[in-house]
Amino acid sequence: MTAGCSRFGSSSSAASAPPSLARSSNRRCQFAHGPWDEQRIGFLEIDLVAHCGTNNRGQYLFTLVATDVASGWTECMGVPSQRQEDVFTALEFIRGRLPFVLLGLDSDNGGEFLNSHLVQYCSQHRLTFTRSRP
User: Fold this and answer.
1) DSSP-derived 3-state class of residue 6
2) Chain-centre distance of CA 117, in angstroms?
3) Which of 71, 70, 107, 72 is nearest to 90 (CA)?
4) How far is CA 68 from CA 3, 54, 98, 105, 119, in A?
5) pLDDT in tens, 74-108
6) Separation CA 113–CA 94 (nearest Å)
7) Predicted confidence (pLDDT) at residue 56 exceeds the cutoff of 50
8) How confident is the model at residue 5 (pLDDT cuts 50, 70, 90)?
9) How far is the C-alpha of 81 from the C-alpha of 98, rounded, in Å?
10) What CA–CA distances, in Å, run from 124 to 14, 53, 67?
11) Residue 53 has what DSSP assignment?
């Protein structure tokens, strides 16, 4: 598994994923196998959307949104919290509904995505895992 950052998605040497994150928004960090390929079906942008309006106090729901960059295919799943376990469960459910093979994930730098559980899962399943925001 690689855990480095570079301008175009290839890896460089770094000890661990979160401390080695890029500081520039035009960089992509790669934590698992293979390059990011926006022209090939199977590479998903994932994000968690909070349904809290203008006030994020109290309980509210989230939606995990996963969009294939090449085809635009989008899957959504309700999530009860930002806990990495809840997000991971929703991601596995979405993966099971995809009409194509999942090849990679790209997320922002939220803790619901950047965690050892998801990095290890991507490594075990040979999925490219990148993040593109500082």
Assistant:
1) strand
2) 12
3) 107
4) 23, 29, 10, 9, 19
5) 999 999 998 888 888 999 999 999 999 999 998 87
6) 15
7) yes
8) very low
9) 23
10) 19, 37, 22
11) T
Q: Tokens at residue 127, please?
A: 């999925």
CATH for 4-53+60-131, among 3.90.1570.10, 3.30.420.10, 3.30.390.50, 3.50.50.60? Answer: 3.30.420.10
Structure tokens at 10: 């290839």
Using CA atoms of 24, 27, 32, 38 in order, give the dihedral in degrees to the nearest 10: 140
pLDDT score, position 23: 33
List helix spans (H) across the chain. 84-97, 116-124
Give the pair of three-digit tokens for residue 30: 């790669």
Q: Which amino acid is at 26?
A: N
